[in-house]
Design a protein that fits this description.
The chain is mainly α. Helix content is 48%, strand content 10%. It contains 13 helices and 11 strands. It has a 3-stranded antiparallel β-sheet. Strands 4-3-8 form a 3-stranded antiparallel β-sheet, covered by helices on one side. Strand 3 and strand 4 form a beta hairpin. Helix 2 crosses helix 3 and helix 4 packs across helix 6. The longest helix has 36 residues.
């Protein structure tokens, strides 16, 4: 029989604590990252055929999976150019941008500092930018051993964002619709900027694979460069002579002598005449295409024919790309991340993130100096903007009448008519 009556404050607090504890334990059990079954990855050399096979698997109308494609993307990111441009220029510039959290158009310094100290911002910015390259990022919030909120990436090879399925085992058929889970939008959020797209790395795969092939061929050329091929003529119908000649050619190595039969002939053929320019041009072309894909410009690559104006124009194009990344970061935080962090109790509700615009201090100082000639400038603003400790206006020393130093030194000039 159900008891009817009013709840006291202590009873209500006890019940709320019990519900909170139960919810937390259910949350830990429902973490999808804990259900991922790790598999050994193949480290064999990839080629264009593997890329086409991965695309077919990812775009399958029956059961789309991104296992092969995401593993190929990880290998593409091992390229030095891709790492420098994506991790340093795209992600690094966005992570270094200053931001503030606002509520009702007013800065909330306490919540801003709390987000900065937690380290969540840098990690989330990295996952947001990577979503444009890897096609998506499924992020799960959790608590670490110290009780701090952390953002973990669900392995991309276990997720099929086109149909919203999660595969605990990449080699199995058991799936789970993660968008229907009760924690989706709170403990589990998704960054999926370009639907029905395989990401920017899908366009970079052929250039990276061709570049690796050219580097491999160039390294083989370096091994045999300057070493002329050896040719030996012998009786191929005699198995014993053929075996002896083959063993001698294989074991001669760097020896300066060899022993052959009087009926045999040994000579050196013409060696390799190229120095690898064809491979160098192919690698340079691939690097330029990758730079255009990542930064919309060839930045710092052609140092032989480059010039300052070309480099400055390329830098402006790159800054435009970084500016677009910052807009994506703001929209992702305001639409998904901040409401989720408020729902799990880490931040206060109603916050909005705003990335502060970068200011050219040299140009701003010139404008401030010109304005100070006619207008009063706030010393506090100068201190906060330029780091100059201004304590007030400088006192001007008064000039006394008749105090000209030149007149005193010359004993004073006589006026006309004086004796």
């Amino acid at each position: 029989m159900k008891k009817i009556g009013y709840k006291t404050k202590s009873a209500a607090a006890t019940e709320a604590a019990a519900k909170s504890t139960g919810k937390s334990s259910r949350r830990n059990e429902a973490g999808i990252i804990r259900r991922v079954i790790k598999r050994q990855e193949s480290v064999t050399r990839k080629d264009i055929a593997d890329w086409k096979r991965a695309r077919l698997q990812a775009t399958s109308t029956y059961e789309p999976k991104q296992v092969l494609l995401q593993r190929l993307f990880e290998e593409v990111m091992d390229d030095a150019l891709m790492t420098s441009q994506v991790s340093v220029l795209r992600i690094g510039k966005s992570q270094g941008a200053e931001f503030v959290l606002k509520r009702n158009d007013r800065r909330d310094d306490e919540q801003t500092q709390k987000l900065k100290d937690s380290g969540l911002y840098e990690n989330l910015v990295k996952l947001i930018i990577e979503a444009q390259f890897f096609n998506h990022s499924l992020i799960e919030f959790d608590y670490d051993k110290d009780g701090m909120v952390v953002a973990d990436l669900v392995p991309r090879e276990n997720v099929s964002p086109e149909v919203g399925k999660f595969y605990p085992d990449t080699e199995g058929t058991i799936t789970e619709d993660y968008r229907l889970l009760p924690e989706f939008g709170h403990w589990l959020i998704e960054i999926y900027p370009s639907k029905r797209s395989l990401g920017l790395l899908n366009k970079a795969v052929p250039y990276v694979l061709i570049k690796k092939f050219a580097l491999s061929c160039w390294s083989e050329l370096c091994e045999i460069f300057g070493i002329p091929p050896r040719v030996m003529k012998t009786n191929t119908t005699d198995d014993e002579m053929l075996e002896r000649a083959e063993r001698m050619m294989r074991e001669i190595g760097s020896a300066a002598y060899f022993i052959i039969d009087t009926t045999e002939n040994f000579e050196f053929a013409q060696g390799v005449s190229t120095n690898g320019d064809v491979y160098k041009n192919l690698i340079s072309t691939c690097d330029q295409q990758l730079s255009l894909l990542n930064l919309a410009a060839v930045l710092g690559q052609d140092t032989e024919n480059g010039n300052r104006s070309k480099e400055e124009s390329s830098t402006k194009l790159m800054e435009a790309v970084v500016k677009a990344d910052k807009r994506l970061i703001e929209s992702s935080f305001n639409r998904k991340i901040l409401p989720a962090l408020a729902a799990i109790g880490f931040l206060k509700p109603g916050l909005r993130l705003e990335i502060t615009k970068e200011v050219d201090l040299e140009k701003l100082w010139k404008m401030t100096y010109e304005a100070s000639q006619n207008y009063d400038v706030d010393p506090g603003w100068i201190r906060d903007t330029f780091g100059i400790a201004v304590i007030g206006k400088k006192a001007l020393s008064p000039v006394l009448p008749g105090g000209n130093d030149d007149d005193d030194s010359n004993g004073g000039e006589r006026k006309d008519g004086e004796g």
